[in-house]
Structures are given as structure tokens and as C-alpha cells.
Amino acid sequence: MPKLLSIVLALLVSGCTSYGVVHNDPLARDDQDTRTYSLVAREDSPRDQNIALMLAFSGGGTRAAALAYGVLQELRDTRITIGGREKRLLDEVDVISSVSGGSFTAAYFGLYGDRIFDDYEEAFLRKDVQGALIRGLLNPVLWFSSAGRTEMAVQFYEKNVFGDATFGDLEQRRDAPLVLINASDLGYGVRFSFVQEYFNLLCSDISTFPVARAVTASSAVPMLFNPVVVRNYPDCKGGERPGWLVAAEKRAQGNPDLRQVVSGLGTYFDAERRKYAHFVDGGITDNLGLRAIYEVIEVAGGIKPFQGKYNRKPPSHAVLISVNASTDPEPDMDLSSRQPSLVETASAMSDVQLHRYNAATLELMELSLRRWAKQLSTQSREVTPHFVQVDFRDIEDAEQRRYFNRIPTSFNLTDEEVDRLILAGRELLRSNPGFQGFLSELEGFR
User: Fold this and answer.
1) What is d(CA 233, CA 228) in angstroms, rounded to the nearest whole number?
2) CA 339 to chain centre
3) CA distances from residue 403 to 268, 396, 408 in whole angstroms, order as listed
4) Residue range 421-441: average pLDDT?
């Protein structure tokens, strides 16, 4: 977001001290169950138990939101036949995990279902969100407000995109997939998902928490926007670390990645030092939205304990579609001996770290999906894994690929860019060999 970056210094020196508006309610000690928006399987779900279909939407501003929207369109128009009954593949989606720009599409679909295909483009994709936010950031009234810049963004998203919807409203949509909106805990580097299981760590009730506030946290670029602040209530913790955390700590020995996750989650039980948590852009801890799925399963003890705890039966097909809107732009710095600017240097360093971390995450998820499928398979019933990657790198035409790699991480794209991104999401999924392989294995696919 070059335009936003250009005003960072002005914002840093212009404003007075601000305080986050706390908007999460406490959870009674005897009410720490999973009746609200949670990982617990919905027993009345119309989805077929033979398919476990998960989507992961990456960050990348409107570029990511539009690419993910195109994938949803393609899933809507993909018809499958299971047990003699024709269905839309979109209706088989169990989970959508998202960060940053991808969270707008995920949350909107989770709240409104097929309505997304009627008004989402006008409500968000084709709206100059960035311009509105910049005008808000530069408003002198905001400089002297104690509420901070993020409240302005929350109010904008409530007015224009999500209304006053809460996670209680998400829970009411029993036929919708579970949406994991992910943010990063700025203080301890913990990835945090907005579901009741994570709110239990805060002794808080997610049902009254606004969806717009969660999406704002998921997309709040540090320094440009203040963190979304939540209260860590001590009342329901009882002074002891829960059994699941103690067990997870033991299992994490010898697994540095899992140990870091479990250690971070344990900090929420230090009520004296963690009175509040500050959430920012989910892309900091996972720009692909994939690690939420991995961590939830592994912290639970692995795929079998997870299936048992959350009342899920082993499927015949485990499908994970990663919608990756990250780009490989060609830097202009190598065209000249001119020293790159501070912004160019910072951007290049960030890109290198992002791509290396993304590559590690993709490898981790592909291997984990295979391992989980093998662990769930029996002699009479094999679970087949399908890891589908929707990525600009799979565009064969070099000029088209270059076009998408030049689309900025922005919340203000042209209509042409939005149109081409939506079409790219559809075509990349439709032509993906792994996706076609999955469809060919389903009975009666046409």
C-alpha cells in the first residue's frame, strides 16, 4: 500500500496517545462450553460426510479478496453427484480459514451465503476502500481522538460491509461453513482465531463480538492502524492451566513449531501480565491462512483426537484448497545503479521473508494432509488427500502472469483488475490438475 506507507511518519508524529476500544464481553466460569461459534461439528449440517472440504484465503488486500471470490464462484458452478443426488460443490465447504484481505470474502460469505454473488462486488471489491480510509486517517479530528485510527476502520466496515453483525449471527447460519478469521497477537506473536475455543483463553464470549472488528484485526497493518484490543478476563480460569494445554506442552517436546504455538497460547493464563491482547494483521503469522488448520488439529493431539473431540467422522476425500494471492513483482531497482529507497528496501526484505515462509507453510500443509489421511485410513476405507493450490505462478502465459504480479496490495483496484482477478480465480481452480483429479474420483461428476 504505497499511498498508505507514505503517510506513516506523519501519523506517527501527529497524534496523541490512543487507547483501544474494548468490545469483548466476559464469559461466566460455569458457561465455558462450546455452545457459541466454535469448532464443534454442527450435527444438522447438510454437507456430505464423505467429503471434508477446506478453503484457505490468503492476504493481499482487494487482490486476495477478488481472487477468493472467483474461487467461490467456480465452486458454486461446479456440480457433483453423490449417492444419486446432484449438489453444488460450494455447499460442501466445511471450513474457510482466512487472513487479511481474504477475511473480507470469507466473513461476507459466512454471514450472507449466496447473497455474496449479488452485492459483494459493489459493497467491497469495487469500492475505493483505501481512499476512504486515507481520508479518515488524515482527518484532523482523528488526530486528537483517544480512540485511535482502527476505530475509524471498524466503523467504516460496519457501515459499508458487515453492518452490526456479530459472531452470534454467524452461529445462526447452521448451513454455512465454519469461518476462521485469523489475526496476530502483536505482543507474543501468537496466531489467534476468532472462535469460542480461542475466546475461552480470554474468558470471553465470542457471540457478542462484532464481525467487522474481527476482520479489521485480521487486516490491521501495524503502524498504519492501531491493534484491535481485547480484554483478557481472569474470572473463569480457576488458577490452573487446563489439561489440554498441559497435554499439548508434553506433545510439543521435540517439535519446535508446535512448541512455539503452545507456549504462546499459554501466555493467556498469566492474568497479571496479560490483562489485554493486541491483535493485528493475520498475515504476520501466516499470510496463507493455512496454519490455523494445522495448529487447531495438532494442538488437539492430532487428527484422530480432533475427529473424536469434535464429532467428525473420517471422510473418503480430504480436500484443502489454498487460494494464494501473493505476487512475485519484478523490482525496478536492478535497472539502475541508484541506491534503492528505504521503502524499496523494506518492501524487498518483507517479500523475501514472506515467500520463504509461504513456501515452508505450503510444504508443511501438504505433508500434514497426507499424514492425516494415512492416519484416518483403514483397510476397508481409504482417505484420499487432495491439496489444491490456486496460485498466480500457475498461469502459463508470461504476459498475463506479469499483469497479475503487478497488481498492488491495495484496497482500491480498477474494475478491469477486479474482473480479471475474479476470472483468474475461476480458471486457475478449474484447470488445476489436483482439483480435476478430485472431481474425477467422485461418483457421477459432470
Assistant:
1) 16
2) 36
3) 44, 12, 10
4) 96
Task: List, in sequence order, every residue forming a beta bridge with 97; answer none if it has no partner.
Answer: 56, 180
Type of residue found at 407:
I
Contact between 65 and 104 under an 8 Å Cβ cutoff? The reply is: yes
Average pLDDT estimate for 191-207: 94
Q: Measuring CA to CA, which residue among 236, 216, 225, 242 is closest to residue 162?
A: 216
Per-residue pLDDT at 3 exceeds 50: no
Judged by DSSP in three states, 26 sits in strand
| Contact call for residues 225 and 150 (beta carbons, < 8 A) | yes
For residue 131, give the nearest of 3, 265, 266 by alpha carbon. Answer: 3
Separation in Å, CA 344 to CA 64, 104, 347, 402? 22, 28, 5, 19
Give CB contacts under 8 A, 24+ apart, made by 412-415: 412/62, 412/128, 412/129, 412/130, 412/131, 413/61, 413/62, 413/63, 413/66, 413/125, 415/126
Maximum Cα interatomic distance, the chain, rounded to a whole number of Å? 68
293 band by pLDDT with thresholds 50, 70 and 90: very high
- For 254, the grid coordinates are 521435540
Residues 159-194: tens digit of each pLDDT: 999 999 999 999 999 889 999 999 999 999 999 999
Handedness of CA 89, 92, 98, 104 (dihedral sign): positive
- This prediction has a pTM of 0.91
User: How distant is the alpha carbon of residue 313 from its chain centre?
Assistant: 25
DSSP symbols for 393-442 = GG---HHHHHHHHTS-S-S---HHHHHHHHHHHHHHHHT-HHHHHHHHHS
